[in-house]
């Protein structure tokens, strides 16, 4: 159930949650690290979490749940996050975008995942000096497990880099999930294509419509990511170091590849729908051809039967001994001749 609160006429920056109604507790996961140290703790109270903040380490605060407006406002007040940003964070219908403020930058995007069907979860990544705050809806999972593992085990360069590299890693993980989603969609399209060629039915058309709606959903979530990453790469903030720019350009290339794949799948589905409609039309034409041939064969026979069924008294053939068999012979000859003609024309 989607919860829509009244926001018309409210002042700009009013923090009003727009999304599915939820009652779970909001979990705050605090991860702090440098090259030699690592701390990870879960909290359900912001004040308790703040007691563990160490300015000498890179901090990642992940907020699981955006439905508690008072908590979001408290985080914004503590870290000096603009109310307009907080308003976007709690609005799950927000279009993906990147914005540059005086003391932080924020990237808002959609994190896609599959259970029985495709879902989108809003993710907001706020990059500040020495820290990253990520806000996400509670849907039972995210794309960051590999990043957490790399931080815990000290693998790769993430523990050696600053907070801007962590923000890049989070965005890159979301984009990598897009590839996994498109791979699953590609498998479904292949199965649908086989069904379309083998034996299309009304259920096939329904599946095609569902897949087209799914691709529109994916396209709406992914297309703005190109602008988001491009703006992030080009912004002049001091929070993003020059050494991170090359990684952002790599993410931009990945996003372009994802968008190309989305467009390819959309074209495939449109082509498959045309094939389905053509297949149905061809079947109808085959049925009409058979009926037309049968009608053409029996029209002259029906005419002869109609003439000799009038029973006029002065019809000479009625009194002929060979009238009945000759009439049958004439009708069979006409039917056979027409069938041979149709076969010669390859209509049969």
Describe this structure in words.
With 348 residues, the protein is α+β, with helices and mostly antiparallel strands. It folds into 2 domains: 2-278, CorA soluble domain-like (Beta Polymerase, domain 2, 2-Layer Sandwich); 285-344, Methane Monooxygenase Hydroxylase, Chain G, domain 1 (Up-down Bundle), CATH 1.20.58.340. Helices cover 54% and strands 16% of the residues. The chain has helices at residues 46-50, 69-79, 83-89, 145-153, 163-198, 202-234, 242-307, 323-344; strands at 2-3, 19-20, 27-33, 38-43, 58-64, 97-100, 105-114, 118-128, 131-136. Strand 3 and strand 4 form a beta hairpin. The chain starts with a strand and ends with a helix.
The geometry reads as rod-shaped
The largest sheet is: 7 strands, mixed
Radius of gyration over C-alpha positions, nearest whole angstrom = 35 Å
- Major sheet: order of its strands? 4-3-5-9-8-7-6
CATH topology of the largest domain, by name, is: Beta Polymerase, domain 2
Count of helical regions? 8
Instruction: Look at the structure and give the CATH class of the largest domain.
Output: Alpha Beta
| Helical fraction | 40-55%
Q: How far is it from the N-terminal to the C-terminal residue, by CA?
A: 58 Å
Total domain units? 2
DSSP summary, beta strand count? 9
Q: Give average pLDDT, whole number.
A: 87
Low-confidence stretches: none
Q: What is the CATH homologous superfamily assignment of the largest domain?
A: CorA soluble domain-like
Q: What fraction of the residues are assigned to beta strands by DSSP?
A: 15-25%
What structural class do helix, strand and pairing data support? alpha+beta
What order do the SSEs take from the amino end to the carboxyl end, as H and E? EEEEHEHHEEEEHHHHH
What is the name of the CATH architecture of the largest domain? 2-Layer Sandwich
